[in-house]
Amino acid sequence: MGTDGATPSSSAGLVPVRPGGAGAIIQAMHGKGGMGIEIPKPFSQPICLVPDTRIAGTTHIDDIDELAPKLSVGDRLAPGAAEGDVAAEAVKRAQIRRTIEDHLERQLEMWPRHIKVLSLFFIDKVEKYRVYTKDGWERGEYAEVFEQEYADLLEHGWKRRCEEAGVPLIDDPAAVHSGYFSKDGKGRFKDTSGTTDADTSTFELIMREKETLIAFPDGKNHDKDVSFIWSHSALKEGWDNPNIFQICTLVETKDTLTKRQKVGRGLRLPVDQSGERCLDPEANVLTVVANESYDAFARGLQSELDKDGVRFGVIAPESFSKVTVRAASGAESPIGFEKSKQVFESLQKAGLVSKKGEITPELKKAAQDGKVELPAGLEEAKEQVEAIILHKAQKLEIKDKSKEVRVRLDKDVSLSPAFQALWERIRRRTKFQVEVDSDELVARCIEEIQKMPPVRPLEVLSMCADLSVDDAGVTAQGTEQSTVNTKTVRAYDLPDPIAELQDAVDLTRHTLKRILVGCGRYDEFPNDPATFLAQVASRIETAKSAIVSRGIKYVRLPEDEWYTMKDLEPGDIRAYLGQNAWEPEHGKSLYNYVVYDSSTVEKPFAVELDQTKEIEVFAKLPSKFTIDTPLGPYNPDWAYVVNEDGEHRVYFVTETKGGGNNDPHLRPTEQLKVDCAKKHFAALGVDDLIYDVRTTLHSVAVK
Q1: What is the per-residue pLDDT across 25-84, written as a single tens digit (0 to 9) for each?
Q2: Do residues 119 and 209 both lie within one domain?
Q3: 133 and 223 co-located in one domain
Q4: Residue ranges of the Type III restriction enzyme C-terminal endonuclease domain (predicted)?
C-alpha cells in the first residue's frame, strides 16, 4: 500500500483511490466511519484507504497538486468530514454527464431528419472552463469533467450505437466542445456583465459561426466538429441558435440570467442541413438540466412568467365566443360575445372564477369530470366550454425528465392468439371513391347558407354611466346604452371571396361562384367580409360532409398492401408518467405504456380496458394505422378483444370522444370521418368485427 511506519489493522475492505486529487480521497473517506486519517507528504504513488484504520507515516499519491495547498503534514480529517463541497462537485459532474447522454440520444433521433443537435452549458466563471497560466492556458474543472465523461460514455456503448446508426461521432472529447466568452486585450476569455462592448463582439462571433455550428462534421472544417457550447450566464442577449436541444446550468453564484431567458435560448425551431425548419412538436422538445429539482424549476419559471405579465389559468367574458351550437334548422353558428359573457358570469356567480378571471381548482375539477353547469339553452356547448376551461387551466407544460418512459411493444401480447386473430381482421386496407352530384352539392350549400344569421355592419355600442367617488372608492352604475350608427360609406379593399373560400373549403371557382350567386346573401359580404366568409365556409363544410358521406364507397386493397406487424412498432416514442403516459397492470396491453391525449377520456378508457376481466388484449392504435378519408387520414383510438361467456370472441375498433353515458359529441368533420370508418370496416367483410364510438367502455344505467 506504500506506507512507512504503520501497518493497517485489517487487510479487508480496501477502498481504492485513483490518482486525481483530494476529491477522490475525500469521497472514499466520506461516511466510512472509523478513526481519523492522517495524510502527510510527500505523495508519489496511488494508495488504498482501509476503513476503520489510521494511516500514518509517509503516503504516496500521484497527481496531488489539487490537495497539496489544502493539507499540511499531520492534518487530520474526521470520519464524514470533507474538504470542499463534495456534494456540489458530484451534482455538477452528474449534470454534465446527463447532458451528454441526452445530447447523444437526441442526435440519434434527429439524424434521420438531417438535424445536428447542439447543447449549451451556462457557467458564471470562465476559470471553470479555461485557466490561464504564464505559459498559456489549460482546461478548467468543468472542461476536464466534460472530457472525462464524454470519453467514458463513448467507451460504454455510445460509440457502437452511433456507428450502427450511421451517425457521425467525433472520438476526441476536446474537439467537440468550445467556449464563447468575451475576451480581454490579450485575447483571453474573461468574465463580464453581459452589457459591455466585449459582450457585443461575443454576440457577433456566435452569429457569424451559427451556420457552421449547425452543420455536420465533414472531416475538413474542425469548427463543424463542435456540438457542445460553453457560454457565460451573463450573456442575456445575442443567443439565437435554433438547434439547442439541451441546456445545462452550472452557475454557482446568484444567477443573473432568468429561467425564462435560459429556456428562450432553446425555444427556436431547429433547422436541417438544407435550412428547412422542423415543425414536428415531437422533435421540438427542450431539455433543461438544472441544478435544482424539477418542481422548483417549474415553479420558478412560472413565477417569472407571472411577473412578466403572462397570465395562466385565466378566462374572460369573450373566451367562449367561438363555441358553436346547432340551431333548430340544423345550422351551426358561434354563440358570440353576449352568450359567452353569460357563461363567464354564471361561472363567476357560482364562485368558480375569481374577479380577475382566475380559474379555481373547483372549476378545473368540474371540467375534468364533465360536470360544468351552463346557462339554459347552452347545454349543447358543454363539452366545448369544458375543453376551453381545461386548456386555459393548463400551466406552461414542463415535463419531468425523471418520469420519462420509452414505449415498447410487448412481444408476448403481440404474439398471443387473441391479438393475432384481432390483427388479422383489422390490418386490411381499403381505398375510397367518391361520387358527388355537383348540382346536389350546390343546392345543399345554398340551403345551408340561407339559414345563416344576418351579417350586419359593425356596430358600436355606446354606454352611459353615473360615476360616484366617495370614501369607499369609485363606483359606476350604468344608466343607458345605444347603438352608434356606422353605416356611412367606408372605402377599403375587399378580399377576393372566391379565392378565400377556395383555400377554406377546397372547391372549384366555378362551383363556388354558383353557390354565391344562388344563395341570395352575397350583398351582405361588404358589411363584414371576414364574418361573412367564415360563416359561408362553415355552411359549405356542413353541406359537403352530408353529401360526401352518402356518396363515398370503400374498396378492399390486395393483401400485399395490408398493414404488417412491422407497422405496430412504436419507434422512438417517449412519454411522461402522470402527464401523458399510464402503465397498465394486467399484461393485456400491446404496449408497455399507454400514451394518451386526454386525461378525462382516453386515460379512463385505458384503465377500464385493463381492469375489465372480459377484455383479453387491447391496443392504443399507433399513429401510422390510418383509414383514408376525403378529409385526410383518420387514426382510430383503440382495438381490443372481448371474450363473451368464455366461449367466443368479439373484436372491436373504437373511437373515444367526450360526452355523457356513451352519447358522444361529434362535430360535422368528426362525424364524416366516423361515417367513412364505418364504411371502411363494412368493406372488409368481417362479421365479428365491430366499429363504434364511445365515451366510456361501460354504459351507466339511467333510472
Answers
A1: 333 333 333 333 333 333 333 333 333 333 333 333 333 344 444 444 444 444 444 444
A2: yes
A3: yes
A4: 588-688
